[in-house]
Every structure is written in structure tokens, then in C-alpha cells.
Design brief:
There is one protein chain. The chain has 226 residues and is α/β, with parallel strands linked by helices. The chain folds into 2 domains: 63 residues, N-terminal domain of TfIIb (Single Sheet); 123 residues, 3-Layer(aba) Sandwich (Rossmann fold), CATH 3.40.50. 23% of the residues lie in helices and 25% in strands. The strands form 3 sheets. The chain has a 5-stranded parallel sheet. The relative contact order is 0.12.
């Protein structure tokens, strides 16, 4: 009996054929690759992954490469550290303060009436956006059918929906927050394009990703959280 027949959700892998950014055969990029680190993914228990950096495209990526059909199995539960919360602890209070400061920095407060926190994780930034932009309605979106615990207790002006439901909506947003999402996405360039289409006139699309060429990445190597 195969794992699938036994009801086990199996992540499978495939070979990369094209450059996600340039839409050219991957062979054209390979001579620009350098291996940044090899490390074991302790959260997924899928074994060891290589992290490469393409000096030509300025992008980092992992090998092996999960298939589009099975990559979602990695995000069906909320067991990774991205979902960890310690309510009212000093650490969480600091994280709340820093998230509100970051939200306030990336967009002018005047004129923000609608905010999308895409792949909201534990919901911290969705709540911070509602607190910073007092007149804004905030949509939090993620891959699970139910909201994270932080958003399950009623919070004014914050609503949650799953990615599948969000795809049916046509609302535009003054601010879209995309924090540490692209590195988990099978087609990151396509996702950015789709979300850009959901921006209101003069809207802001804020993107944050790990910088595999940063000083911290070089110093800490495989121990760097990014």
C-alpha cells in the first residue's frame, strides 16, 4: 500500500526546468549558481535541502523542489514557529510593538481604508494593521479553512478567509502586506502579479523576503533563521 492509499499526505519533488523570473531555460542560469548552505528542515522532517543563490537573477531558492500539487501539504497545519504565540509575554509584547511600527512605516496613515494581509500566519500583522489604521477594514488570508487563534476571538475590522475563497473576491486594497510568503510559494512572480492587480489606485504592495546574500545569512550560515 502506498502512503497516499494509506491516507498519508506526501510531499513530492520535481526538477526545475525554467527560471521563474526570466522565463528562460534554467540551463542559462546554472553557471551563475552558488550553493549558500545545505541544511535539514526540522519542521517538515523532509530531510536535507540545498539553498542556492543565482548571481544573475539575485534570487535564492531551495533544492529539491516540491511539486505544485503537493507543496500545500506543508501548510495544512499550524505547527511551525511562524504560528507561535505567547500572549502577554515580554517577547510577544515586543513583537506586537515592532509589527505596529513596521506597518506604520510602510504606508501613509491618511487614505488607508482597506488592507490585505496575505498568508497572515498567526494574524499578528493583520491585528497590527487594524490598530495602526483606525478607519481601515483588514482582510487576513491564509491556506487553512479556519482563522488562527489570534483572529478567532472577534477583533473589530479584521475578517479572515481561506485562499480559495479569496480567489473569488474582487476587492481592491490600499495596502497589501506580503511578509515572508514568496519563499513558500510555488510561483512567486505570478503571485506578485495577481496581487498587484488587486491594488487600489496609488496603493502600496509591501514585500518582505529573506535576503540570502545578507551579512546575517553569511555569518550564521545554516543557523540563520531565514
Amino acid at each position: 500500500m502506498s502512503p497516499e492509499q494509506a491516507g498519508v499526505r506526501v510531499v513530492r519533488f520535481q526538477s526545475r526546468t525554467d527560471c521563474e523570473l526570466r522565463k528562460e531555460p534554467l540551463e542559462d542560469c546554472k553557471r551563475h549558481w552558488q550553493r549558500v548552505v545545505s541544511l535539514e528542515d526540522h519542521e517538515s522532517n523532509l530531510g536535507e535541502f540545498d539553498v542556492f543563490f543565482c548571481r544573475r537573477c539575485k534570487l535564492g531558492f531551495t533544492e529539491p523542489y516540491p511539486t505544485e500539487e503537493t507543496v500545500g501539504h506543508l501548510y495544512e497545519t499550524r505547527e511551525s514557529r511562524e504560528f507561535e504565540l505567547m500572549p502577554h509575554s515580554p517577547i510577544d509584547l515586543i513583537k506586537d510593538f515592532l509589527s505596529r511600527r513596521e506597518i506604520a512605516r510602510i504606508a501613509p496613515r491618511d487614505g488607508i481604508r482597506s488592507v490585505l494581509d496575505y498568508a497572515t500566519g498567526n494574524g499578528r500583522y493583520a491585528v497590527s494593521a487594524a490598530r495602526v489604521f483606525k478607519d481601515a477594514c483588514v482582510d487576513a488570508v491564509d491556506y487553512q479553512a479556519t482563522p488562527p487563534p489570534l483572529l478567532q476571538s472577534r477583533f473589530e475590522r479584521v475578517s479572515y478567509c481561506a485562499v480559495t475563497e479569496f480567489a473569488e473576491r474582487r476587492q481592491r486594497y490600499d495596502l497589501i502586506v506580503l511578509r515572508h510568503v514568496l519563499e513558500h510559494t510555488h510561483h512567486p512572480v505570478q503571485l506578485v502579479a495577481r496581487l498587484a492587480d488587486r491594488l487600489a489606485s496609488n496603493g502600496v504592495l509591501y514585500i518582505e523576503v529573506p535576503n540570502v546574500d545578507s551579512g546575517c545569512a553569511k555569518v550564521f550560515g545554516k543557523y540563520w533563521p531565514g
